[in-house]
Structure prediction request, 497 residues.
Amino acid sequence: MQEAKIDQRTTDQGAYFRPPAPEPRARRAGPIALVRALWNSPIEAWTQEHFEAPVVAHRLPFGTGIIVNDPAGIEHVLLSNAGNYRKDTLQRRIISGALDNGLLTAEADQWRFQRRTLAPMFSLRTVRGFSAPMLGVAREFAGRWSALAAGESIDMADEMTRLTLEVLERTIFSDGLGHDIEEFRAAMRSYFDTIGRIDPFDLLGLPDAIPRLTRLQARGALRFFEKAVDTIITQRASRLAEEPEAVRRDILTLLLEARDPQTGSGLSEAEIKANIITFIAAGHETTANALAWSLFLLSQSPEWSARVAAEAARELAGPTDEAADRMVETRAVIEEAMRLYPPLAAISREAIAADEIAGHAVPAGCTVVIAPYVLHRHRLLWERPDLFDPNRFLPDARERIGRYAYLPFGAGPRICIGAAFALQEATLVLGTIMRDFRLALAPGTEVWPLQRLTLRPRGGLPMTLTRRMSDAQAMQASASPRVASTGRCPVTSADVA
Ligand code: HEM
Prediction:
């Protein structure tokens, strides 16, 4: 494996660095090396060909697979012919269990009903109303870090998962999770550490009747979720029966009261449970990783650290509801972090009927992989693809990025429902941290991306935090010129509806 070193270089447009990432293999791995790479961390398996060709076909033990990096081909799969592509067997096997019947895994009518019901919870208007609790959580965490001794390090990847879980508690599950948040976090971590691995038996397409080690290991966490979610539902259902007016219309209420306009039926108990777990699962590790990678990248870039700190000092001092929309430099860093390290490194689908993608025949049952990790570093689509350069995402440049060349949140009808929520949260949290602290990697830390269910820094992100300056000083220091905002969130409410 390549050593994790930071490659600094200067070009005519400023100083850039090449953050750590596996060197693409010169040739495809043989079957055993491939299974090993997919089990350990699938991003280690990509070859130069994947980063250079628009479409690459593979013969897999259970059929054909194609990797699509051609933007028109991706649009075809995710949008214009989306009806012909469902979540594939491998993906369903990996995320089955706690998430079965939830929005992430549902198909056809079950998915349409759930998506319609839950969309209002994630509209831009609702999400803006969450600015205050998001900032509140960020400030509380910053307050705690201020008590760290000089030079003491703290795992910021871990802190980000705590923080994002706390944000979910205060926003979409407004009565809290009814359980110790640390227990929830630990169960989530152990669940995803086990099921987030591609089981070799699944890769070989062996029947479900043969037990998978990964699923056996996840059983304890599953039992914990069952019990915890039962408690959440019982408590809320009794509050709704006793004092419906006093209960906030958060995601839990929406789930319990949802009725299909056509049939009048509500969500089944299994669907409600699965969605509670889906929102906690899909909504916290992803955003936590986007934040952890942003913090790492900023720790290597004094220029962008200073820019984000100054912008946050200026914009967070005023009304906060639309502050995230104005923090264009902070958001550019987050978008660049998600380009280099997309929290969901691959999206996959299965063709229902035979089709053609970018001139390639696609047989029925073919697995189609769209891998943001590869797409975002593709030689045909990006200049200096491996270098950290948030300028690409500043307003004018951002307009030139093809819609299907950058997909941290997916695209089409199954685009991430929480995209606006996540972007706003990440912007406000990153801004608060950078305004208040200077960050450095703890001595001896080697950062390396590890792909499990999400793409995270292997072994965490130990960092030292030094208080930057008081709020008043930060205000004075914020006389830096403002980058004009387009006033638009890059994910529109139309995308999310
Ligand atoms: C930076 C943070 C996030 C990233 C990178 C991310 C990424 C994604 C991606 C790529 C998909 C599409 C998967 C596919 O097409 O197969 C997706 C779907 C989804 N995400 Fe996110 N997500 C993030 C945050 C969130 C948050 C905060 C929530 C909720 C609180 C959420 C809930 C969901 C759900 C429920 C789906 C399934 C939507 C559907 O199929 O209709 N995500 N996410």
